Amino acid sequence: MNTEPVATVDSLLKEAVTAIGGESPRLDAELLLAHASGLTRTGFRAWPEREVPAQASEHFRELVARRAQGQPVAYLLGEQEFWSLPLQVNETTLIPRPDTECLVEVALSLPLPEQASVLDLGTGTGAIALALASEQPNWRILASDRVAGAVELARRNSEALKLPVTVLESDWFSQIPRQRFDLIISNPPYIADNDHHLNEGDVRFEPSSALVSGADGLDDIRFLITQAPGWLADDGWLMLEHGYDQGAAVRALLVSDGWRTIETRQDYGGNDRLTLAQKPLGLSGQEAAHAE
Ligand code: GLN
Q: Could you tell me which residue ranges the Release factor glutamine methyltransferase N-terminal domain spans (predicted)?
């Protein structure tokens, strides 16, 4: 016979808060218990003495143990909200960050054609592309990722949310069908490979392919800035997310390649987070060769 004391909402949450520690143990515990039990967080407050069935409390304790090891809550829930869209997430790719919503906001404010064609490079979960699709049903949105698992995930999110985004497996531009976009948008990897942040918090569990980009974190951004003109309409825009301390470096790269209307914008925390620019005037030699 099972002689374990009956677990209640309150007892489980208390036990989890101690085990989890860190910055937001109560919130983490509530999210995990809601996920494991099917009960709501408001329900926890209304009825703390409520008994939790053995199977649910066992599942909850497993999740708490993984959280205590540092696993991101989003991976444990299998879901993260972005732009109010519930996105499925998994270890193949980055967990969407709230600050990336700033790219969506700025993209929606650009003077783009009614039926703009948009490319989201390194889409991961599909977050940026799907958020744009949810706001602009007339845009033609293509999203790509180099990682097959991320492509599959982005497609699943597109289907689950019934938002029409085409997702292709492609290492940056390599498999993109030749065309001219009105907007190329990307949250590329941009962390320097020796950055100590990589050993802290959620990023420890995220794939480095989505995070790390060479000695100064700018390898992929440099590549995108060089290649993008060949894929943009004459007045097309490039918008890149980058690190809080990379704004000046990204602007300098754009300036030296002749880009126009270069501007860095801040995230919700007031840090430089994205830079946008309009395609340089005239075909560069490199683009002419590339366009053949
Ligand atoms: N903003 C993320 C972080 O600081 C990094 C995202 C990225 O490299 N694209 O963890």
A: 18-78
